[in-house]
Amino acid sequence: MQANNHIFWDVAEVLEYDYTYSYIFPDAGKTNTDSLFALKVRSCSTLYNDQFILARPANNAIKRIPLVGEMVLIYKTFNEQSTKYKRRESWYYVDTVDLQGSINENMLPGISGNKTQDEIDKTKPGRTFTRKPVALLQPYEGDTLIEGRLGNSIRFGSTVNISTTDRSVSENNTLVPTYYYVEPTWKSPKPPGETGPENDPAQPIIVLSNGRKQLPNKQFIVENPNVDASSLYLTSNQVIPLTLSKPTTKNNSFEGSQFIGVGDKIVLSAKTDVIVLDSKKAIILNTPEEVRIGGDDADERFVHGEVLKEILDKIISHLLYTQIKCGDLTGTFLNDTNLRDAQKKLYSELTSNKYFLKKT
Question: Are 93 and 84 in contact, with CB atoms under 8 Å apart?
Answer without folding.
Answer: no
